[in-house]
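Write out this protein's structure.
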Amino acid sequence: MYQEYRDWEKAFQKQTAGESANIDTNKLWQHLKSHVPENRKQNRWLPFLLIVGLLSLALPSWLWVQNTNLKAANKSLGQELAANKLLLLECKALAQNSNRMKDPFSVPTNVLKAESGNREQNKYVSQRLNNFSKSDTPKLVSPDQHFLQLFENTTPSNPLREAIVVSNLNPRKLGVTLEPELFEIAINKHKRKNTIAPPSGFVQLTFTGSGSGLKGNYLSSDLAFLNNVNYQLGLQLNAAKFLNRNWFVGVKVNYNYVGNVTNYTSTTKDRNETTGTTQILIDGNGNISSSEGVKGTTIFHRVKAELYNVHHQILLGPGIGYSFIQSDKVNVNLYASAQWLLSSHFSGKTPLGSETFAGGESQQWLYRLRYPQLGLGADWNQQLFGKLYMSIGLHTGFQSDQLGLAGRVLSRKGFFYGGHLGLQKYF
């Protein structure tokens, strides 16, 4: 049987030894080209375009809110200026009437409020008029100059507020002739303060979601894999304290649910060995001799797969921020943070999950951050009611970590980017 196979093999080799194939490689490639999958490049600009798009939506919204507030302030200022204009016109009329010495003393009705029922004040004014003489006549001040000076010293943000109560007087009934005397009336000036009281701090609870460019690879004679972070979800608690009206410091606690994907290649080999005849010798006289020894076969196995697992981690770290827009309705903050790892655990298939070794021993990959997780972000806080705000934000950062198991070391580094949505409470 074996001899027949060898004879057939020799005959086939002899027949095909002189054969050749004429293959048109260009024509073959044209047929195969349409079936070769394209290696599409990853669009790494998509996250940045997303951030720019969200900012382009947020900026018109902020400008619309500021424009609404400005319109309301302009309307209030217009009403205030109109009232001051009427007051100046009446003061001008008062100055003209004061030049008529023989005319009765008159007072603008819109400036002076009559209280005819106040008898004690009438009595006081009558005594002052009886004691009046030219020798103690006070220095006259032009009404125009007096009220114009008051108006110039009063900014639009500090409206004139005065309460003038004068009894209804008739100089003719008093029987005296008076030179016009201008009584200076004190005006209560109050500086308008910002209606927004600076908060002492805030607490923020948000849901987070992000993508990542974090990846690394491990290579050995029997094992090779490329690992990268596929997605990241989490819950974040942030408590902050304002140092002044704008700057604040705080601390963040994050729970992250991180999805990993690994392209995995494993190579193993099996060796089967037996003891038997390894060599047979036939000399020229036809004598046969044999030798004994170990003989066997080696079988190689290669496995390729795409594996998924989940990484649970808890991080804690300080942060600092600046609130550059503050109003009754909207607050906008910028912040930076650095976080350290408190807890880490992988679950799912290997690699990076728990691996079982010979003897049933199982081990977990050890994870650590090589440097603190650094991040930058911004959030837009829109008032819902009272001191409770809805918070929408974007963030990005850099991370470098390392995993190890049984002499294997996998180092990863990369940027992450994402956003958050939640509630923020000022206090």
